[in-house]
Amino acid sequence: MYLVFQLTFMLGEYPMGWLENFFAFAAGFLTAHWPGDPGGPLQSLVVDGIIGGVGGVIVFLPNILLLFLAIAILEDTGYMARAAFIMDHIMHKIGLHGKSFIPMLIGFGCSVPAIMATRILENRRNRITTIMVIPLMSCGARFPIYMMIIPAFFAAKYEGLVLCLIYFIGIAIAVICAKLLRSTLLAGETIPFVMELPPYRAPTVRGVLIHMWSRGWMYVKKAGTIILCISIIIWAATTYPKTGAGALAGLDAGEARTEQLKNSVVGQIGGKLAPALEPLGFDWRISTSLVGAFAAKEVFVSQMGIMYSVGDADEDSEALRARLKADYTPLQGFCIMLFCLISMPCVATIAMTKQETGLWRWAMLQLVGLTALAYIITLAVYQIGTLIT
Fold first, then answer.
1. How many CA atoms does the CB half-sphere of 10 hold within 13 Å?
2. Lowest pLDDT segment from 42-51, 245-254, 379-388
């Protein structure tokens, strides 16, 4: 898995750069050749809201496709079924079934199909436990957050290691939570493992590409629907209400942008949340971005891009990483990833949990429980890290 993560960074760097350049060119071209009022609200909506928001997420598509490609190869070789069989003994120790390994692994792609995949589990207690911990698997939606933060704060030779650490932290917390659930709310016997193992086979190029693209297309559809809508809403919330010219007098462009953001709707929301999240090392920008990430985790990236780039046509991730590095420490960067890993799942995951369990109480327990757990763990890591450093 370490090799997969490292290759994802190395091979994905080049197409990611091409996409960054494309969106930067598109934003610059529209800014220079805008037919209407230059610098007006419509231009800002298109350039900063739509291109900046959606483009800031789409640039990570090559890295995500590479990750899905590796998973598809492992699935099509027949390795996954054997991994489930091998993992059965370990899974039983935490009260789960060997078959739980398969939907949990699918959870590295997206939690929604992973929760649907729990239908292969005959025992309801096993199934609900698996559903409850699937969001702790780092889904593809969280990957852009990692891709934004890790290169900004950690040396290239450690990028794969840090990413691997984040993934394994999620797995470790999932194991502990599953054990607690099976010992308390969902106590009961685990049924024996029975599964037909397929023969090892060479994966076909067509089959692997179909599996990779089907998962990648879900990410693209999110960018074109949910993320587009949220990006427009966040743009409006960062643009209005307008700060009076008198309040901006004497300020340079950067200071004026910051003042506008603080006085906007999104800045006021972030300001109200900031005191509660300040012990975690989060300021108002991070706090506000986390609110939008409830709809879709990857929206966190586009929100940070929009808030750092209001009035700025340059939306490429290198500029965003440079600004993050200037404003935050590596410890804060790690805590952002940790909180996004553990905290509340996206809206679609909550809805799917309710649908598959048939009860809102499990969906609400997942939402509130994981968010509270994320707060406690991130608080401990940040405070201890601050004392050490």
1. 10
2. 245-254
